[in-house]
Structure formats: C-alpha cells, structure tokens
C-alpha cells in the first residue's frame, strides 16, 4: 500500500480522536465542571450514562491516540526530509517551538490544553530517531512503565520523609483559575489561563504520568512508521491482531487491580494490614503511585484496543466510508483543536455565554459544533492543501 493510503487511515483515526476530545470536553464544560443536577430523574439517569460512558471510552484514550499518531507524523516528515538529503532534527525542534506558541494560544482560551505538553515532550524525538528500533522500543517500554512513580514508591517505603519531593502541588493554581472562569472577563480569563491554568495543567500531567506516557507513545508511533504498520498487508493484519489480543488480555487485570485495590485496602483493619505480608499497601504514597502506574497502563491498553478496532474497521468493513468522511477533519486537527477551545470557552466560561447545562444537553450542543466543524473541513480541504493553522505552521517550519 502506498504512503498516501497509509496516511489516509491515520487521518481518519486522528479525526476520530479529535472528535472524541471534543465530546469529553463537552461534559467537562472545558475543565469548568459547573454542571447542574437536572430536576428530572430520567434526565439524571441519562446524564449519568453519558458521563460514565464517555469517561470509559474516551478518558485518557483520545490524547493517547493523538500521541501515537504524533510519533507517526514525525517519522513521515523525517523520512521525507531524508529523501531530499536534509537533516530534519533541528527543523523539527523549531517546529516544536512553534507548537509551543500555538499551545499557548490555545491555553489562553482553554485551561486544560495539551499542545504545550506535546511541544515539550516532542523535543525527545530528535534525540532517539537514529537509535535502533529495538532500543527505541525498550525506551518506550520504560517510559510507559512510569519510572518516576516506581522511584516514588521506593522513596515511600525507604525514605518516607522524601516521598513527596517529586510531587508538584497545584491546588491553589486550580482554585484561582476556576474563580476566574466563573467571574472574569475575556482578558482576565486569558491571563489566568496562561499562568494559573498552565501551571496546574502541567503539574497535573506530571502527577498523572502524562509526561512519560506521552514520550513512550511518541516513540511507539515512530516505530510504527518505521515498520509501515499502518499499511494493509497480511503481516500487519497479524501484527494488529496480536496487539489487540495482548491489549485485551492486559486491560482486564489492570482494570481489576485499579478498581479493587482501593476497596480492598479500605475494607481491612489498618493495623492488621500493616502487620501482613502486603503491609506496603497501607502506605498511602506507595499506593497512590502504584495506582498511577496501573491506571496509565490500563488507559494505554484500551487505547490500543480502540486503534486496532478502527484499523480493522477502516480496512475490512463498510465503516471505512464513514471514516473517510472524517479524514479532512483529521488533516485539520490543529485548527479544529484550537477552534474547539475558543468555542467551548465562549459557551461555558463567564466571559461568554456562561451556559450552565447538564451533561446531556452540553453533549448534544457540542455534537452540533462537531458536525459544523466536519462540514467546514470538508469544504476547506476541497480548495486547500492544509488547514488554516496547519498552513501557518508549515510555512513557519520551513522559513
């Protein structure tokens, strides 16, 4: 299969990932969380179903898909540059500086954006792109296993007084950002988001293991590009089938541990637990880091289930026709992501309409925004090679 076709499936999956991000942000009110409880018991039930279903399917997975495809895109650009005899590494680092600026534009409207994190972690790719594939896979595995959390677990058991030295408190910044979202005008909101919002967003990402998880997924995406894993071939079909089976086998025990461990510890007498052979689980700091590792691996495994399912749907089912309609949306992912933040900020923050809607109505409203975005992207890509922000990013990259 040609490179162009390989990019097609990546564009389709990327479009689905951006749509998933909008759907989750809709019920979060773009990190504002000011949803009311509906008066109707029926609507309360629907709200709970919408909330639980979207967090199960999307929470922590959409960004992971995006990270995987980010690494794939890096490999494609690197390969194209090599074919021209160019060294793309320094230019890619400049590209990450530009992404950092786009991320701050996005952060001015949305206090939970991810582009700044990607621009920081993206700097690791030029450092590893010339390593052997096996070495990159080992590094990716180490990152996905959350080495800092294992270090924190060791400190919690051996040097408890130092167990919090690798944590970055952000509650005060969160509170200040939420107060501004509830009361501030546009300029106040932008200033607060760029300072308090960015600090708590990056500190939360560190505590949630997003730094190392993102780096690992970037590397896996780069390796997927090296082996041409997104093309249609019998070898790749077997590869993705094995990944699907392995991910499912990993997901269920990880979910069991993550769900049962807190209740198991809570059900035992503290003194009896400390005196038992698993007394280390009584250590709150140790348990928190262990659950962070388990949760990160759980989300990654389910993300791979989603990617495998989408690949098989694109190549082997009639759903590929519907997925192709999202390809323009995926090709304009940067533009769509930033526009989502601007629209969401206007809809839910105090400076805009300040809508206080329940989860169901908020989701339906943002699905309407999604439809309009898809229609606009379809029209735009008929007349242009890239999206608006993608064109600016491309031109500035090759200054």
What does this structure look like?
- This protein has helices at residues 3-28, 41-57, 62-83, 89-109, 115-121, 125-128, 133-144, 147-158, 171-183, 186-207, 210-226, 234-267, 270-275, 284-316, 319-324, 327-331, 333-348, 359-383, 388-397.
- The chain is mainly alpha-helical and 399 residues long.
- The chain has one domain (3-397).
- Helix 1 (3-28) runs parallel beside helix 17 (333-348), helix 4 (89-109) runs antiparallel to helix 19 (388-397) and helix 9 (171-183) runs antiparallel to helix 10 (186-207).
- The longest helix has 34 residues, at 234-267.
- It is globular.
- The relative contact order is 0.16.
Q: What global shape is seen?
A: globular
Helix and strand sequence = HHHHHHHHHHHHHHHHHHH
Mean pLDDT figure: 93
**Number of domain units:** 1
Major pleated sheet? none
Give the structural class.
mainly alpha
The number of helical runs is 19
Topology, number of strands: 0
Summarize the amount of helix as a percent range.
over 70%
Beta-strand share of residues? under 5%
CA distance, first residue to last residue = 32 Å
C-alpha-based Rg, rounded:
22 Å
List low-pLDDT spans.
1-6
Keywords:
single chain; 399 residues; mainly alpha; 19 helices; disordered N terminus
What is the topological layout?
Elements (H helix, E strand, L loop, with lengths): L2 H26 L12 H17 L4 H22 L5 H21 L5 H7 L3 H4 L4 H12 L2 H12 L12 H13 L2 H22 L2 H17 L7 H34 L2 H6 L8 H33 L2 H6 L2 H5 L1 H16 L10 H25 L4 H10 L2
Helix pairs in contact: 1-3, 1-17, 1-18, 3-11, 4-5, 4-10, 4-17, 4-19, 7-11, 8-14, 9-10, 12-14
């Amino acid at each position: 299969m040609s490179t162009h076709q390989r990019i097609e499936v990546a564009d389709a999956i990327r479009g689905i990932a951006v749509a998933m991000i909008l759907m989750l942000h809709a019920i979060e009110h773009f990190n504002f969380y000011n949803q009311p409880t509906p008066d109707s018991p029926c609507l309360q039930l629907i709200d709970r179903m919408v909330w639980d279903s979207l967090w199960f399917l999307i929470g922590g997975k959409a960004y992971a898909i995006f990270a995987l495809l980010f690494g794939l895109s890096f490999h494609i650009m690197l390969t194209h540059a090599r074919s021209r005899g160019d060294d793309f590494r320094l230019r890619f680092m400049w590209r990450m500086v530009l992404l950092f600026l786009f991320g701050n534009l996005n952060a001015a409207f949305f206090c939970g954006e991810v582009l700044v994190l990607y621009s920081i972690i993206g700097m690791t790719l030029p450092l590893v792109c010339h390593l052997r594939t096996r070495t990159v896979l080992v590094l990716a595995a180490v990152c996905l296993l959350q080495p800092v959390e294992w270090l924190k677990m060791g400190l919690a058991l051996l040097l408890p007084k130092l167990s919090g030295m690798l944590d970055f408190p952000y509650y005060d910044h969160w509170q200040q950002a939420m107060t501004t979202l509830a009361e501030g005008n546009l300029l106040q909101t932008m200033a607060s988001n760029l300072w308090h919002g960015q600090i708590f967003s990056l500190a939360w990402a560190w505590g949630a293991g997003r730094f190392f998880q993102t780096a690992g997924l970037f590397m896996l995406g780069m390796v997927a590009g090296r082996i041409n894993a997104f093309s249609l071939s019998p070898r790749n079909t077997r590869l993705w089938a094995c990944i699907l089976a392995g991910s499912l086998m990993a997901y269920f025990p990880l979910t069991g541990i993550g769900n049962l461990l807190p209740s198991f510890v809570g059900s035992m007498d503290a003194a009896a637990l400390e005196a038992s052979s698993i007394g280390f689980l009584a250590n709150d700091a140790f348990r928190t880091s262990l659950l962070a590792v388990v949760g990160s691996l759980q989300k990654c495994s389910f993300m791979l289930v989603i990617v495998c399912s989408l690949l098989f749907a694109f190549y082997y089912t009639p759903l590929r026709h519907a997925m192709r309609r999202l390809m323009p949306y995926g090709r304009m992912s940067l533009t769509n992501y930033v526009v989502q933040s601007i629209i969401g900020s206007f809809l839910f923050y105090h400076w805009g309409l300040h809508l206080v809607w329940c989860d169901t109505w908020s989701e339906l409203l943002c699905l309407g925004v999604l439809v309009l975005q898809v229609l606009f992207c379809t029209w735009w890509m008929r007349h242009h090679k890239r999206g608006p922000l993608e064109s600016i990013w491309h031109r500035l990259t090759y200054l």
